[in-house]
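Hi everyone, sorry if this is the wrong subforum. Our group has a chain we'd like a structural model of before ordering constructs, and none of us has done structure prediction before. Sequence below.
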Amino acid sequence: MKNHNLIFKRTLLAALVAVGSVQLAACEAEGDPAEAGGISGGGTSSGGASSSGGSSGGVPNDGSTPTTVTEGGTAINGNFICTASAKAYGPSPVTSVSANGLVGAAVTPLLALLGGNTLTQLLNSVKDQSLAVDGNLDTAATYSLTLGLLGGLISSVDFAIQPNSSVPAGKYAVFALSFPTATLELSLLQNIEINTFLNDTEQESASTDASTLDLLGQVSLTDPYRFVGMKVTKPYNKVTVTLNPQLLSVNVGDAMRVHELCTDGKFVAAP
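Answer:
Right subforum, don't worry. Here is the predicted structure as tokens:
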């Protein structure tokens, strides 16, 4: 009789463990993929639903978005699909903004030459920074350039993202970007530069002249989109995306949106 009771208890315990495992797996399947470093949003070729943070829609992540990605300086054929964000290397990536490559105390003398309001303009030059590392292609951080920045000594605005661990060689440093049409018509953009670093030592860079992106020729119901960056041949734990604007005597407002840093992905044939 004792043996029968022992067998029954063991069978019941095994069944409860199995049920618990199924429930846990179901909960994990229903979770937000962005929290584990995956990508959400951007599921349709016409862009995602409108969202907060200045984005007019999500960057399409179905292989239809035009792509400028290099490996060792050579362009990779096809269109990029983003499969992992900076959160794949830690839950809370750090973001920061700098000018002319200067950060912290080093930027103070430069700002002093540009007037009292420029510090505020610099800090606000990239709005909603956290939206570039939330794993969601429907949201975006936004470069907002004003007269004080364009007309002074600041020639570039750098937006840096630091994952919590190193991204290994063979992965990607690719940004999902969109561009307000009004900015393009003003021919504001000179180039977009992406640089990777390992412990503040520069690893690799990719520079794209905006005129080569053919953004005005892109057929889109919303603002033009682009995947821009590189497949890295060296590990990195910081990456910057730098906007080098031409000096204009106008307030241009929103100039470029950074929807996400993609740390991994795949290529498909362009449609």
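For your construct planning: The CA atoms of residues 8 and 33 lie 39 Å apart. Residues 67-268 form a domain with the Jelly Rolls fold (CATH 2.60.120.260).
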